[in-house]
Amino acid sequence: MTGNTVTRYYHNFLQVVQSYYQLTKPRIIPLLLITTAASMSIASEGKLDPILLLVTLAGGSFAAASAQTFNCVYDRDIDYEMERTRHRPLPSGRVQPTHALIFAITLACISFTLLTVFVNLLSALLAMSGILFYVGVYTHLLKRHTRLNIVIGGAAGAVPMLVGWAAVTGTLSWTAWLLFAIVFLWTPPHFWALALMISEDYAKVGVPMLPVVTDNITAARQIWVYTLMLVPATFLLIDPLQAVGTVYGCIAFIMGAIFIKKAWALLQDSENKQSARSLFLYSILYMMLLCAAMVVDSLPITHNFTQVMIQLVN
Ligand code: HEM
Ligand SMILES: CC(C)=CCC/C(C)=C/CC/C(C)=C/COP(=O)(O)OP(=O)(O)O
User: Fold this and answer.
1) Last residue of a domain, one of 170, 203, 232
2) Residues 238-258, buried b or exposed e (16+ Cβ, 10 A)?
């Protein structure tokens, strides 16, 4: 083999690896992992085992990657039609659907094995139910058929919060379900803000996203309603659940106020794509910082300080 042939093989190999990596929609996975880590931090009350954290995040990444790959296989027809998704590995012909399917199944098996062997069965079953719900309920049953696709389907994106909690405690509690509810209520403003920017694409392929089947003002009103449910819900972690403390309280208050302000601005001018874009990008920052605050509040030093303060107040 000449040097040139080796270089060509190496180059082709890298391209194949890159295509499979792209199938997993990797840009979304970090935020899913941040929610898992936040949930684990709160559940462990300042005593989080770093090995458990790493293995759970690895298992969660494989599960999310599997779910996204199944979704890419199922949606390859509409992905081909839409500008935003046309260059994905399946519509552009870089990966065969059967190969992608085998890849998705393999990822799910790795995730299940990792979580069952090194974490616990409940976290593994929850991760598998996240894949099933995202693929079977959101992608197959809802996405192309009802404007409620995001509202109900959003539950899949909230499952990592449950996985994180179950990984630490082996069970689920009110706090775990509240964390689930926070991501669930966050998803419609997150997604409809984006859908307002790219509704033409969804209209072209007949996907009934809210701004496509109604109008921008109806979508902006719904975003407003969900924002007004989301922000108060984030405070329930402080009272009555007393799961987090001051750092989280400050971040939830400031970030929540900005979220409401941006949703209000969109409501005033629902045709303004810049306002929609600003809310979409902000929704990601909001969830990141909210989760970061949960982690900070669960660090041993902050956790102990909060416990002392609670005892003093009581
Ligand atoms: C059913 C629920 C959801 C839907 C339909 C949805 C949809 C989308 C779409 C279509 C994009 C644009 C991606 C692209 O440009 O290719 C996006 C971006 C993003 N989503 Fe969501 N999303 C959902 C839930 C979530 C959840 C639960 C998280 C994490 C907690 C999340 C995190 C992100 C992030 C971080 C981005 C930005 C990715 C980038 O940098 O381009 N999403 N979402
Ligand atoms: C525990 C576990 C495995 C949970 C799964 C969580 C998960 C994969 C959430 C993804 C949410 C998301 C980005 C949906 C976009 O789908 P879309 O098909 O509407 O986006 P598209 O238009 O970009 O294809």
Assistant:
1) 170
2) beeeebbbebbbebbeebbee
**Side chain identity at 112, as an amino acid letter?**
F
Which token pair is 131? 């894949």
- Looking at the structure of the chain, the number of domains it has is 2
Same domain, 29 and 157: yes
275: CA distance to ligand 1 center in Å?
Answer: 18
Report the half-sphere exposure of 4 (CA within 13 A, side-chain side). Answer: 0
Domain of residue 40 covers 14-170
**Which CATH number belongs to the domain containing residue 294 in this structure?**
1.20.120.1780
Whole-number Cα distances in Å, 277 to 34, 211, 271 = 22, 14, 11
- Is there a domain that residue 3 lies in? no
Is ligand 2 within 6 A of the CB of residue 163? yes
Alpha carbon nearest to ligand 2 atom 9, residue: 157
The pLDDT of residue 1: 65
pLDDT at 33: 98
Instruction: Note whether 194 and 149 are same-domain residues.
Output: no
pLDDT of residue 46: 81
The answer to whether residues 124 and 179 belong to one domain is no
C-alpha 160 to ligand 1 mean position (Å): 14
Residue 135 Cα, ligand 2 centroid: separation in angstroms? 9
The model's pTM: 0.94
Which of 90, 135, 190, 290, when mutated, tests ligand 1's pocket best, judged by the most ligand atoms within 8 Å of its CB?
190
- Within-domain flag for 7: no
DSSP 8-state code for residue 95: S
Q: Is the pLDDT of residue 64 over 70?
A: yes
Residues 122 and 200 in one domain: no
- Residue 220 amino acid letter: A
pLDDT digits (tens, 9 = 90+) for 262-291: 999 999 999 999 999 999 999 999 999 999
